[in-house]
Design goal:
This protein is an alpha+beta fold. The chain folds into two domains: 21-86, ATP12-like (2-Layer Sandwich), CATH 3.30.2180; 91-241, ATP12 ATPase (ATP12-like fold, Orthogonal Bundle), CATH 1.10.3580.10. The chain has helices spanning 52-63, 75-86, 91-103, 115-136, 153-164, 168-181, 184-191, 197-204, 206-215, 219-241, and strands at 21-26, 29-34, 37-38, 48-49, 109-110, 143-144. It is globular, with a radius of gyration of 19 Å.
């Protein structure tokens, strides 16, 4: 199941066709309704969410729409569609993708210099690597530079098993986060409540932030950063909503 970082919205935005948004219990969970009509996935299935909290998040996105529907702002709705339609038929492939991100995890590649950047990486990434080994049994090899370093096969197998142990909604979130951060470790940390979504996002762009402090940032790059930060914050809300 390919997961892309970022999203491009279609040129023609559909007009809002409803007035009221509500959440109602159903035999399959909780449904979001627009003027009493149940929201459906792109393939036509009823959008049934496993918890009221998650359904409320989807409902808030629909309620926030103006005269036209801005699909790019509906992060929870899009991820819910993935969890319902893409994940069930591709659980093994999705777990393998998560393991592949772990195999080249961003947090394992420390800069060779300058010293200030190396110190910042060590302060931010080191505690997450230590936590993953102590709490989850995930031992990663740390390197300096960008040359690929194979990670222990046992670690990658444990990551895949962890992914497969999750339900479809949590697995969708883990895969999304791994791609968003370029790091399965950061995605797992958000899943487990070790990091907030925004804290994980900041750790995923330590190098970028360091360069921005030195050279500045243009408006387009700033807009992209804030869009991705919003997706990271959504991911945290997604995982917490699944807790009930």
């Amino acid at each position: 199941m390919p997961v892309q970082r970022g999203f491009h919205e279609p040129a023609d935005k559909p007009r809002r066709f409803y007035k009221a948004v509500s959440v109602e219990p159903s035999p399959d969970g909780f449904e979001v309704r627009l003027d009493a009509r149940t929201v459906r996935t792109p393939k036509g299935a009823k959008l049934a969410l496993p918890t009221r909290a998650l359904a409320d998040q989807v409902a808030e996105e629909w309620a926030a729409q103006g005269e036209t529907i801005e699909v790019a702002t509906m992060h929870v709705m899009r991820l819910a569609n993935t969890a319902l339609e893409a994940i069930p038929a591709a659980r093994s492939e999705t777990a393998e993708q998560v393991a592949q991100y772990a195999g080249s995890d961003l947090l394992c590649y420390f800069a060779e210099g300058p010293g200030a950047l190396v110190e910042r990486q060590a302060a931010g990434w080191g505690p997450i690597l230590d936590w993953a080994e102590a709490e989850l049994g995930l031992r990663f090899v740390r390197v300096s530079g960008i040359i690929h370093q194979d990670q222990p096969q046992a670690t990658l197998e444990t990551v895949k098993a962890l992914a497969l142990s999750l339900d479809d909604f949590r697995l969708a979130g883990l895969a999304f986060g791994s791609a968003l951060f370029g790091s399965t470790l950061l995605a797992i940390a958000v899943l487990k409540g070790r990091l907030s979504g925004e804290a994980a996002f900041d750790l995923s762009r330590v190098d970028e932030a360091f360069q921005e402090e030195k050279w500045g940032i243009d408006a387009e790059a700033a807009e992209r950063t804030e869009r991705l930060r919003a997706e990271a914050a959504m991911l945290e809300r997604w995982f917490r909503a699944l807790e009930g």
